[in-house]
Amino acid sequence: METEEDIAAFKRHLQEVIEGAAFKGSHRSRQFLEYIVEQSLAGHFESLKERVIGVELFGRPTTYDTSDDAIVRVTASDVRKRLLQHYGQQGGVSEFRIALPLGSYIPEITREARAEANHATAAAAVPAAAHADAIPSPQEAVSSVPTAEPAHSQSTKKGWLYFLCGAVVLNLAIWAMVWNHFSHATPPSASVLPWSVFFHSPRPTQLITSDPNIAEMQGLTHSRISVSDYANRNYIPDPDKLTPEVLQFARVYLRGDKAAAVDTPIAVNIAELAETNARKISVHAARSVRLSDLETDDNFILLGSPRSDPWSALFNDELDFRFVFDQASEQEVIHNTHPRPHESVDYVPTALGWATGESYAIIALVQNPDQNGQVLLLAGANGEGTEAAGRLVTDLPRLSTILQKCGISSSGPLQHFELLLHLHTMAGSPSNIDVAACHILAGNSSK
Fold it and tell me: For residue 399, is it within any domain?
């Protein structure tokens, strides 16, 4: 692609991608892809760093904390998924191909040679990392060079290393935040449900984080992963229905354990409450848990809806508000199995993750079926919803007031309950969190 005609052809392809079905409904992802490609073509690799993208593309202040605001990382992940969807549907007729390597914001561009050129493969790959002493010119960034291996396969080899590093960083981040909180803050004593049960119980408490990769893979492959599939480690139930490229990406992407960004502060705040009450909690990634681990008398805290944490589906029968996946909108909605006066049967979010609109979440305290332990479910129809549930359940004064208004007492016999939360979302942040409904659940136990 050394001529202006080649570059013009590639730009037309870029427009086809961002205007195609895979990017429909995500203005942010379209903007992100167009931005990183244009910066690469211009040779502005210094602009393809997380903080710079956050400032220049998303309007964040220059001092914003990238560890707290993951908009760039989340959008990049969404772009990778949508590119795979696009080429999975259009790959056979695409002359060009755009990929975004894991852990990088510099796109790789490949081009397949035309048939009249003896079917030779030509690739134009923007380097996966920019070095100050070897920054290519705009022409070099889109030039065609022979290659024996597609650029996307090189990025696949790097994927495993990125996941290992990500898991280590996540664990270090959690413990660093816990240490910081313990050193500088002393939260109030947990004398309100559900903490009065968890921290006064002789049984250990296990916190299970969600599995965001599983949620993303279900969207990418348009498949459903049941709790049975998840328990049997069958994460790709119908591999024959996937294109080789999508299947390869899925297998690499699903390696290792990963927690959602919103899970870390929730785990930290709960660990802080436990420490204040001279108790400890154990934190586990959803994919490291086995079914037998849940069939004990331990107490459990599960983060995420069934789509992001399939284990939570084990407790659906205990709930009035249940997550149901709507195929038409490709999102989870909350179905009210026992609607009361002035309550809706279905609660449908108007915003998917990292969008602006309304969403819903639940906080539920239930008995572990056939066991003596208690289970706390904190789950949103999107990540913002789970974050909102985590905020409210660790805000003890507000939680106590809400439970009292619902007729739920922290003293006396144990009452299992469920709160349905309504919230507004904007750019990945929940706000205006309020309680849309509260139910005292049947089958309460005094254990």
Answer: yes
